[in-house]
Specification:
The chain is mainly beta. 1% of the residues lie in helices and 45% in strands. The strands form seven sheets. Strands 1-3-26-25-24-23 form a six-stranded antiparallel β-sheet, with no helix packed on it. Strands 2-4-29-28-27 form a five-stranded antiparallel β-sheet, with no helix packed on it. It has a four-stranded antiparallel β-sheet with strand order 5-6-7-8, with no helix packed on it. Strand 19 (228-233) and strand 20 form a beta hairpin. It is globular and about 55 Å long. The active site is at residue 284.
Length: 348
């Protein structure tokens, strides 16, 4: 069954699919002279119901709001529920921004991804963000080739970092992209080469997925995914999902984990290849809710996929989606959407 309804009135226009799924277009680069700004305009988000199960997740009277815009490439949204604080990255601008319902938008941390004075002509900034079990901000830093902890309280950010990993077997990491943490306190992160400057030589011969165990040892889990990007655990942490942001192989993989969090086996979970004509974008960042449903960037917006790999719905959003974050009650979805950040009320 398929039906469509609108979150808010307006005109929706599809933009042709770019061959590169996760870097900003030249038109967005041209916006770099504009200052990011708070915005409270409604945006058109058409909801395509692909399965009636989606109605347990989505209300028919939901709406989307552009809460901030004029970014180059927004990424890595992190909603901190007890502080009612949204953090997110503008990767090319080398900035982390903050937004609250009460105070709106402001710069949070700069520089945040490349802290050295070297020139960088691509994507030097921060990307994925999480809080660890100590409440510290963990940042994927493209320009510094590092996964790092901000060495300052969340309420008083400073450009001070403790590096968790920046090399593997004596070779510099590429550009850590997204990160998660399990209940044991082990970090998992992807390391594609999107953030390497054009003048840099790639030192690792692969794009990897890594784990840092509780003793701080860095372990390579996977080196066979061409462009590993977003990743997430199933609610019971028995499975690890990883997105491949490759136009020729736009796949979300699923891997079974043992009790130590190491990979047992796995394979293709969902293939977006037959759906690329639905609009711009592909699998990039994603989140899971407490029922195991996946909210993932995909062609033409955000796709909601069941734990069984069944498409439930699509939030059709103009321009490419990079990532999303759920509120704790799972009623609100924050979406990084090229030069914008959206707040979508899923349920009242």
């Amino acid at each position: 069954m398929m039906e469509k309804f609108f979150i808010s009135a307006g005109i929706f226009t599809l933009i042709s699919l770019s061959s590169c799924m996760n870097s900003p277009s030249s038109s967005n680069q041209d916006k770099s002279g504009q200052q990011p700004a708070e915005n409270t305009n409604f945006t058109t988000v058409e909801v395509e119901i692909l399965n009636d199960k989606a109605k347990d997740i989505l209300d028919e009277n939901i709406k989307g709001t552009v809460i901030a815009d004029n970014f180059i490439w927004s990424e890595g949204p992190l909603w901190i529920d007890d502080k009612e604080l949204l953090l997110f990255s503008d990767v090319p601008a080398n900035v982390i921004y903050q937004w609250t319902p009460e105070d709106g938008l402001s710069e949070y941390l700069k520089p945040a991804g490349m802290t050295t004075p070297h020139e960088h002509d691509k994507e030097p900034g921060p990307n994925g963000l999480i809080l660890n079990h100590q409440g510290e901000l963990v940042i994927c830093q493209h320009g510094d080739h590092a996964l790092s902890i901000m060495n300052a309280p969340i309420e008083a950010p400073q450009v001070k970092f403790k590096v968790l990993a920046n090399e593997y077997q004596g070779k510099r990491l590429n550009s850590p992209n997204d990160v998660i943490i399990d209940k044991q306190g082990q970090y998992y992160f992807t390391d594609p080469d999107y953030g390497l400057a054009k003048a840099e030589d790639k030192e690792l011969p692969f794009n990897g997925v890594f784990k840092i165990d509780t003793s701080g040892i860095l372990e390579l889990l996977i080196d066979t995914i061409s462009h590993p990007n977003g990743l997430a655990f199933s609610p019971d942490e028995q499975n690890l999902y990883i997105a491949n942001s490759n136009h020729d192989s736009p796949i979300i993989y699923k891997y079974r984990l043992d009790h130590n969090g190491d990979i047992l086996d796995g394979g293709v979970f969902f293939d977006f290849k037959p759906l690329l004509d639905r609009g711009p974008g592909g699998p990039d960042g994603f989140k899971l809710d407490s029922s195991g449903n996946i909210y993932t960037s995909g062609p033409g917006g955000v796709w909601i996929i069941s734990p069984e790999g069944e498409p439930l719905a699509r939030l059709i959003i103009e321009n490419r989606v990079s990532n999303c974050a759920l509120s704790k009650d799972e009623k609100t979805l924050f979406v990084t959407n090229t030069d914008k950040v959206l707040q979508i009320k899923l349920k009242n």
